[in-house]
TrEMBL record:
Record region (Disordered): 88-110
Pfam families per UniProt: DUF6247
Protein name (Swiss-Prot/TrEMBL): Uncharacterized protein
InterPro entries reported in the protein's UniProt record: DUF6247
Length: 110
C-alpha cells in the first residue's frame, strides 16, 4: 500500500471513530455544513442521511472503495433535489391511479 493511500485509510478510520461518538443530530449538523442541500430534507431524512453516510463511510474506509460513499451522497443529493421541487415531490409521492401491469425483469424485452 502506498504511503498516501495508507495515510488516507488511517484518517478515514479516525474519522469513522469520531462519528461513532456523535449522535445522529450531531452528525446531521456537521454534515449540513459540508452538504448544504441537506437543509431541504425533512428532519427525519436528515437523520437517515447521517446514519447512512456514517455506515457508507465505514464501509468505504474498510474496503478502500470510496465509490460506496460517493454513491450514498449522489442518492441523497437526488432526494434533496426532489424535496426542493414541490411539484416533482408531489408527483412522485402521490399514489398511482393507473395500473401499468407487471414490470419485466431488467434485460428482458417485450
Amino acid at each position: 500500500m502506498a504511503v498516501a493511500s495508507e495515510g488516507a485509510v488511517t484518517a478515514a478510520r479516525a474519522m469513522r471513530n469520531m462519528l461513532h461518538h456523535l449522535d445522529s443530530t450531531g452528525i446531521a449538523e456537521m454534515l449540513a455544513e459540508t452538504f448544504p442541500w441537506t437543509d431541504v430534507l425533512p428532519e427525519e431524512d436528515r437523520h437517515r442521511f447521517a446514519t447512512e453516510f456514517t455506515r457508507a463511510f465505514e464501509t468505504a474506509a474498510e474496503l478502500e472503495r470510496w465509490n460506496v460513499l460517493a454513491q450514498t451522497i449522489r442518492e441523497w443529493r437526488a432526494t434533496a433535489a426532489v424535496h426542493a421541487d414541490p411539484e416533482l415531490h408531489r408527483a412522485l409521492s402521490e399514489p398511482l391511479e393507473e395500473d401499468h401491469g407487471a414490470v419485466p425483469p431488467p434485460g428482458t424485452e417485450h
